[in-house]
Amino acid sequence: MSNYGMVIIGAGETGARAAVELRSLGWTGKITLIGEEAHAPYERPPLSKPTLLEEHNPSPAYILDNKQLEEHRIELMKGCKAVSIDKNNHSVQLENGQNINYERLLLATGAQPRRLSIPLSGSQSRFDTSSVLYLRSFGDALSLRRRLEPGKRVVIIGGGFIGLEVAASARECGCEVTVIEAGPRILMRGVPEAIAAIVDARHRSAGVQFKLGVGIAGISSSGGESIITLINGETLACDALIAGIGAIPETALAAASGLAIENGISVDEKLATSDPNIFAAGDCCSFPHPLYGGMRIRLEAWRNAQDQGTHVAGSMLGAKEAYAAVPWFWSDQYDLTLQVSGLQGIGTTTVHRTLGSSGDLFFHLTDERTLAAASGIGGPGIAKDIRLAEMLIASKAVLDPDALARPDVKLKVLLKG
Amino acid sequence: MTYEGWITACEEEDIEEEDVIRFDYGDRTFAIYRSAKNEYFATDGYCTHEKFHLADGLVMGNHIECPKHNGRFDYTTGEAKRAPVCQALKTYPLKQESGLIWIRIN
Ligand SMILES: Cc1cc2nc3c(=O)[nH]c(=O)nc-3n(C[C@H](O)[C@H](O)[C@H](O)COP(=O)(O)OP(=O)(O)OC[C@H]3O[C@@H](n4cnc5c(N)ncnc54)[C@H](O)[C@@H]3O)c2cc1C
Ligand code: FES
User: What is the pLDDT of residue A390?
Assistant: First the structure.
């Protein structure tokens, strides 16, 4: 199989990083990067922020341009969808009928926005979801930005990160914005209540309206206007309706070829699937995390996509190391930056440290007083401490909550023990 | 105060060991580093990936890590060390005199 190359399905963050890393690690054979989208790999984080706000026609923020693809001898097949995998014959079938043979295969298929579901028949509700917009791709962002004109009424379903980032951008475009969230507060997943409260207040001061703790009973649309009926009977009319209600890992291809699935494509600590020649990384996979006792997690975060892309390239070439990076993500809304490292849900107590005008840090400790996670909100000044906290999490050092609370105790000093 | 193209950026003691501060001059911005070995270095203030102040980032050994996406540079040479940064940082000559840090920026 010497002429079989490394094949990557999914030309996103993970796929692009893996392709480059395979070269850096000395792989001299073929590298084929298969992507369904019409574009070379590009960054998604700007889609909810600058792409919506840029005055002139935006273009994607490319991760790899033609020159780099050429330099690394990566064959990019744009606009090509992989439709099946033949594990026995080591081949991938494309929608256009082509077959691509692989020595090792990487699935980096990412995730898709969760769609608003139509209630079961028999329910009184009426859901016309044809007018609902989602945000995952550059194309989605272009459709959305056309709707964000000053004075337009925008309703966002879901008070998670994507929904709130879009809310902030829509306000900055001069739209009237309402966020509907079924949970009792925004950002139920991944950040402590104190941070959610700061974000909530910032949105309200910018003029965003919230409908919290209330579900949707029906959606109808006509003549470019959508009417949302809430469970409490209230109705809202809008010119643009966007749903940001989570993402679903893209596992169809893997499942159809009989690979194990468990909240994403199930991989081991090296990111290998149940077939030793097939790997998966990024938003599409769930993996056991050594830092958290081997607990299986799935992340939807940019740095994880990068780091797993880099790591999996090594695994594809035979390295045995476990992927053990501390989870980390950020979100930008208005002038606020939020960063979280670790898994907040594992913590049992929270310690607050103020950084004055720079922001606030929250440390989430386990019962053993090791750090499970740290979250920060404020200006860019929080970044340094969140990064140090990440190292404290990895070190599993036992920490003194009083020291964590005191701004004059440097985290660098705690790290050095 | 300036002479022969050198300007004073800060006092030696303004920067903690293994740390960085931001120095603005006119409409330009720089980052000035003090290593764990008490050597001083200067680079452009903004990351080459997006326009974020590197002085908000973390200094570890010879590296500065960008606060935004954790790209990394060797601040002693300006070399890009970790994705997503790929373009090197510009570095500037520094000198220490009378407890002051001088930088030559043109
Ligand atoms: C709007 C938005 C804002 C975000 N902001 C942040 C942020 O601020 N901070 C943060 O940490 N994270 C953020 N993220 C998350 C981050 O972008 C993702 O975690 C990251 O893109 C995941 O990379 P990936 O390569 O796993 O998947 P993706 O980037 O989704 O790439 C997967 C690619 O695979 C392709 N594909 C799927 N199936 C096939 C097939 N069968 N054949 C061919 N191609 C296929 C898809 O078309 C897609 O291009 C954001 C995401 C979005 C959508
Ligand atoms: S702005 Fe510095 S790494 Fe992105």
Answer: 96
Residue A341 near residue A394, CB atoms below 8 Å: no
Q: Residue A407 is encoded by which pair of tokens?
A: 């701004």
- Please give the single-letter amino acid code of residue A165: E
Amino acid found at B10? C
Q: Which residues of A137-169 are buried (b: 16+ CB within 10 A; e: fewer)?
A: bbebbeebbebbeeebbbbbbbbbbbbbbbbbb
Tell me, yes or no, if A330 comes closer than 8 A to chain B by beta carbon. Answer: yes
Under an 8 A CB cutoff, do B52 and A380 touch? Answer: yes
Interval A278-316: pLDDT, tens: 999 999 999 999 999 999 999 999 999 999 999 999 999
Whether A279 and chain B come into contact, CB under 8 Å, resolves to no
What one-character-per-residue DSSP string does B24-60 give?
Answer: EETTEEEEEEE-TTS-EEEEESB-SSSS-BGGGSEEE
Please tell me the residue having the least CA distance from ligand 1 atom 41.
A82
Instruction: Report which secondary-structure segment, H or E, holds B23.
Output: strand B19-25
Q: Which amino acid appears at position B2 of this protein?
A: T
Alpha carbon A297 to its chain centroid, in Å, reads: 13
ipTM of the complex: 0.85
Q: What is the structure's pLDDT at A118?
A: 61
Residue A142: alpha-carbon gap to chain centroid: 19
Q: Which residues pair with B28 in a beta bridge?
A: B25
Record the tokens describing residue A209, joined without a space.
Answer: 């309206």
Ranges of chain B with pLDDT below 50: none
Q: What percent of chain A has pLDDT over 70?
A: 97
Classified as helix, coil or strand, A245 is: coil
Whether residue B58 and residue A383 make contact (CB cut-off 8 A), yes or no, is: yes
Structure tokens at A96: 């256009």
CA distances from A53 to A166, A264, B53 (A): 10, 33, 22
What DSSP string describes A145-175? HHH--TT-EEEEE--SHHHHHHHHHHHHTT-
Integer Cα distance of A334 and B62 in angstroms? 33
CB contact under 8 A, A387 and B58: yes
Q: How confident is the model at residue A82 (pLDDT cuts 50, 70, 90)?
A: very high
Residue A134: pLDDT band with limits 50, 70, 90: very high
Closest approach of chain B CAs to the CA of A380, in angstroms? 6
Q: Which of B67, B70, B83 sits opposite A380 (nearest CB)?
A: B67
Hey, what amino acid is at B65?
E
* Nearest-neighbour CA in chain B from A388: distance (Å): 8
